Amino acid sequence: MEQIQIIDAKKHIGEIVQIGAWVANKRSSGKIAFLQLRDGTAYFQGIVVKNEVGEEIFQIAKNLHQETSVMITGEIREDSRSKFGYEIGIQGIEVIGESHDYPITPKEHGTEFLMDHRHLWLRSSRQHAIMQIRNEIIRATYQFFNERHFVKIDPPILTGSAPEGTTDLFETDYFGDKAYLSQSGQLYLEAAAMAFGKVFSFGPTFRAEKSKTRRHLIEFWMMEPEMAFTTQEESLVVQEEYVAYLVQSVLDNCDYALDVLGRDRAVLEKYTQLPYPRISYDDAVTLLNENGFDDVTWGDDFGSPHETFIANSFEQPVFILNYPKAIKPFYMKPHPTREDVVICADMIAPEGYGEIIGGSERATDYEFVLERIREFGLNEEEYSWYLDLRKYGTVPHSGFGLGLERAVTWISGIEHVREASPFPRLINRIYP
């Protein structure tokens, strides 16, 4: 007898199989019990008929508690009434691990309670669906970049300097010297791009921002590509193709998860249509001022309400181009005809989800980068290796970073980024 997973039920119609599962819920009448089963791949229903299995098996079924683990034996059948399409007619039940007084019941629970029980909350159908979409976005990311001959490079998590400035770093002792948890792998990826042409990384990054918004995590995962011989204009094409590819992959491969979350597929379909609209920072300020945002003046960074209004004006992801030099990092290339802006872009997601990508063309002039490092008050010696990239065969190069959890939150249509991380780290939470 073959042991299968629920997701493969369609391959075994009419066969007697075994499935290891947990009891998510159950209901029973005098002669029949319905078990809602999950095994990590999907959910489906198991049916226990008293007259078919006998008193002993039926009593086991009736007495099962939520999250008890079981080994089920039975026949796979089609079930046209369910979205999943299949069920199992149970013939035998072996209890593996009992579960009593499971703390998360079908009733409503407060957010803090659920976060305190995140290790158990992950088992729920909604959290399962979100993690399935996260997994698909990761899978699709590797496929997208591998198909385009990018080489995956793993930058260090412990660094001796800061790519984005020193205000939100986690500092640690490194054998008597100061070290920091990485904010970004970008500087190292620039070095790798000079060796391999096109590279990308995917790994954890850390920002010690004391922010409690629904968009911020202390620890999050970043997809960071870097491309040699690539202008910003060419990079923008890669960015929009990548995001559209992610959305399409979720539409193609996460049908059940989207149903669980109630995500409108027609809305997601719009996000696969290219090219995405673009607006300059200058015009974005004008757009905001003309629509009641009098608090925004040229030179300000945009806040959540501003980004939401801009993106909703287009109903698609939108690029905001060429921000003021004063509010962007030292490594961005200066604009060829203006002193006050740099060649960069943020991609803002619609529906109020904010920035999901930040990118730029990188400055290649040695003296300009050195001057900017000094302007930022950074230690020149710590960046000497980075300056070397401008001395030995520099080329035009561009790159960007996509925050995984923000992308998951947006594509899933959920409200808070904390649900997009298996075990989120927030300003007030490092448990569990």
From TrEMBL:
Keywords: Aminoacyl-tRNA synthetase, ATP-binding, Cytoplasm, Ligase, Nucleotide-binding, Protein biosynthesis
Domain annotation Aminoacyl-transfer RNA synthetases class-II family profile: ranges: 133-432
Reactions catalysed: tRNA(Asn) + L-asparagine + ATP = L-asparaginyl-tRNA(Asn) + AMP + diphosphate + H(+)
GO BP annotations listed: asparaginyl-tRNA aminoacylation
InterPro entries, A to Z: Aa-tRNA-synt_II, aa-tRNA-synth_II, aa-tRNA-synth_II/BPL/LPL, Asn-tRNA-ligase, Asp/Asn-tRNA-synth_IIb, NA-bd_OB-fold, NA-bd_OB_tRNA
UniProt key word Acetylation: no
Record's keyword annotation contains Lyase: no
Entries under SUPFAM superfamilies matching the protein: Class II aaRS and biotin synthetases (SSF55681), Nucleic acid-binding proteins (SSF50249)
Listed PROSITE patterns: AA_TRNA_LIGASE_II (PS50862)
Domain of life of the source: Bacteria
Subcellular localization: Cytoplasm
EC number(s) from the headed UniProt entry: 6.1.1.22
GO cellular component labels: cytoplasm
HAMAP family: Asn_tRNA_synth (MF_00534)
Subunit structure: Homodimer.
Family: Belongs to the class-II aminoacyl-tRNA synthetase family.
Listed name of the protein: Asparagine--tRNA ligase
Organism: Enterococcus aquimarinus
